[in-house]
Amino acid sequence: MIVVMQTAPLKPIVSSTHIAFASFIGTAIEFYDFYIYAMAAALVIGQVFFPASDPAAQSLNAFLTFGIAFVARPVGAILFGHFGDKVGRKATLAASLLVMGISTLLIGLLPSYASWGVWAPICLCLLRFGQGIGLGGEWGGAALLATEHAPAGKRAWFGMFPQLGPSVGFLLATLSFLGLSLWLSEAEFKTWGWRLPFIASALLVVVGLYVRFKLAETPAFAQALVKQSTHAVPLKPLLKHHLKPIVLGALAMGVCYNLFYTATVFCLSYGTITLGITRPDFLTMLCVAVLFMTLATPISASLSDRFGRRPVLLIGSAFAVLAGFTLAPLLASQSIVLITLFLALALFLMGTTFAPMGAFLPEQFPVVVRYTGAGLAYQLGGILGASFAPSVSQLLVNTGGLQWVGFYVSAMAFLSFIAVWFMQETAKIDD
User: What is the CATH number of the domain that holds 414?
Assistant: First the structure.
């Protein structure tokens, strides 16, 4: 007689610690993938994939490929949001991470213009679009994973964990390029060294997938499934009934994105090419500066749970308007200390205006369209504030000087201030 022992299936994990870590690790990995491309665009993409053009044109072409992913991100938000609002948060988040990871790995393996000719930049643009699709589905799901599990009065604090992911992802990306810059010669870095962070991301994706497959569905969406209140096509009721929060949310996000990509992509390119600061020195400056973003994130999230989302965001946006006027004099000083001061100020204000968005944007939408709505507003804000911020800044500095880049930062911050002013305070809403 043979006795078959059956073991019960593993129960999904619902502990607050695991949920916080899962929402953090996914955004950290995906933004690491995104930022290593930003670094490569500022440092080497133009030389590898657009070698026939002069240095200024190389930088501009590289920044334009950087912007392609931001155009793709709203498409990803709609695509993954459809399944996230119809099927569930858990499986959709795993799929978005996989799409991002495969696209990033293939960029690292993509032959150069010298090997493939015009097909190399064409494939680069397609893979960059794939990165945008994946990241477009990531943030909304990660934010919902955290906030829909959060206890009352703590949604911004739990929503902070996916907001910490970008700063940690950026730090990892910066450290990887800093290490390569210190250990490799310029020729080695250009030939193969820049590819290593892209290839290494595959290992991080495996970790992220393992963590996410152990999650339980969020209580809010599980209840919607029980009530059979989901929509066949969530985008239709979203656009019909919730267009205003999408538009205002996108405008509100502009300040975060513009501050970050001006400081980390444009300033990196300008500092190393125009000011002649060595790559390791500038990357070290960015590593210092991003710590201020990491510091601001929990402080801002805690304050927004205590005093409301709008007051924190309005104050942060107002200071960002003023920060724009400091860009030209601090960068033009060519002082390592003063430039680092500007980078730290910009990233601190980025963290201040970014952290409350983990709760604020999802709270603008009902459960059954929340994945699509929050993700779409967030990613449209990326097009507005970040997609072409480095290329616009490069054009402005070429035609009018650094002061116009500063005016551009201030204008974006003011636009976000106005948007937040007209948005609904949601800190005390229970949903």
Answer: 1.20.1250.20
